[in-house]
User: What shape does this take?
Amino acid sequence: MSTGTTKLDVVVSDVVPVNDLVTRFHFRRRDGELLPTFSGGAHVVVEMRDGERTRLNPYSLMGSPLDTREYTISVRRDDVGRGGSLFMHRSVKPGMEMVVSYPVNLFSLDLRAKKHLMLAGGIGITPFMAQTAQLAAEGGNFELHYTCRTASLGTYADVLRERYNRRIRLYHDDREERIELDRLLSTQPLGTHLYVCGPAGMIDWVRDRAAALGWPPETVHFEHFAAPQPGLPFDVTLAVSGKTIRVDEQQSLLEAIEAAGVDPPYLCRGGVCGQCETNVISSDGKFIHNDHWLSEEEHRSGCKIMPCVSRFEGRSLVLER
Amino acid sequence: MAAKSIISRPVYGTLSPQPGKHHLFIADAEGALAIGDMAERAPAGFFEGAEIVFILGSDGKHVAALEALKPAQFHLSPSFASLLPRLRQTLANAHMGLRLYLAGTEGLIGQAMQVALEAGIDHTSIQTEHRGSLARRMQCVHCKGITENVTTQPATCGHCGLLLLVRDHYSRRIAAFQGVCINAEDRSEIPPMEEIFR
Assistant: This one.
C-alpha cells in the first residue's frame, strides 16, 4: 500500500508519439472532475495491468502544475527493461481506463532559492517540464542545461526553446557538446539551488563537482529515475505473514511481495524515498543493493533491504514482512 | 557553550573546514580562538582563499594570531554595524562556493546569519562556533525595540521600559531572543533580577 496516497481512476485521453523513443500519455479523471494539485517535480505511480502481471511504475508529471484538468507523463521505451515501458508503448490506447496514484513529490523546488539551476540528461527532462512551467508562472529565475544524444532525440528541446528561449541551453552528444560544469558551477550567484535529473553517472558527476566546489549539500537536489533491474529468480520467506514467495526474473521483490497479497508501504518505487525499507531476519547469500536510501554501512550489514529495486542471490532470505 | 532547551534556541557547532575555494570568516572576541583551532585542522593553503573580518575588542587582543594565518584578506572593524555595508556588498557579489564561518558571541553570530539568510544562504550551510559571552540580543515583543547585551533575567526593555522575561524563543529573521512582559497582571510585582547570561 502506498503511504498517504490514494488511487485515482483515470482514462487515457491522448497518446502522442514524441520521437523514436518517447511517447506522451494524457490522463483525465473518469468522473470529469479536476485532478489533485501537484508541484513541479512530482511523480505518479501508474498501475499497468498486463494479463496476470501488475506493474507499478513511477513517472514524473510533466504538465504545468497550473492545469489539473489532465496529468501528462512521457515514457521512454526501454527494449531491455522489465517491460513496463513496452507495455505503455504497445498496449495503452486512448479511451483505456487506468489507475494512477495521487502525486508525490520527492524532487521539489526550494522556493527560497534566488535562482534555480537545472541540469537534465535525456528523459530526465520530464520533471523540469513541470518545474519550469511553475517557475515561469511565478516570474522565478531559472536556467536549464539539457544534454541529449542527438537533436532528434532531444525530447521537448524545441518546446522548451520556444517557451523560454535563452534560459534553455542544449548540448548534443553527437556533436560532442559538453557542459562546462566547473565553470557553470563556479559562476552562479549566491543563493542558487542546483537540480539534476538524468542517468546515474551524470548525477554522480554533478554532485561530486558541486561538493568539491563548495556547494552545500542542502542546495543540491537530484532525482534518480532508476527502474528495478531484472535479475536471477530467488526465493524469499516473509516471516510475519508466514509466506514463501518466488521473485521472478522480470519482477521486483516489492512486486513479488505485493503479488502474494502482502501490502508493504511504498512511495517512489525507485530506491530513494525509504518507505519500503525492510528488515532482514536471516540470509545466506549475496545482496544486490540498487537503492540510494540505505547507507553503505547498512548495505554491508545485510540487515536491511529496499525491496523496490534491490535483489538477492543465494540459498535463503527471510524478511520481517 | 550555550545550553540546549527549546527547538528555536540556536545550537552552535565547532568550525570545520568546508570544501570550496572561497571562505569568509566573521568573528568577534574569543571567536578568534575558534578560527585558530580550526586552522590546525585545515588543509594546506586553505587560508589562501579566505577572508577574515574581525571585530576588534577594546583590549586589542587576537589580531596578531589571526594575521599569522595569512588570509588572502584581513579586515578589522570597530563594530558589527560598521562591517555591515561591506558584508552586504561581499555577499551580493559572491558566487556559490563561498562558505561562511561565524565565531564568537551569540549576538555576532545571529546578526551575521541574518544578513546571510537575506543573501540566500541556508542557515544549515553556515559553520558556527560560539565562544565568549552569553549576553543576548533581545526583542521586546510589545514595542519591538531591540536591546543589546542583555545579561539579566528578567531584563528591562531599553525602549519602553517594561520588565521582560527573556525567553529561549529565538528569531533568526530578526536575530534576537524574545522578551515578554513578566508582570503584566500586576506591575508592582517585581521579581528579583539575576545576572545569568554572562
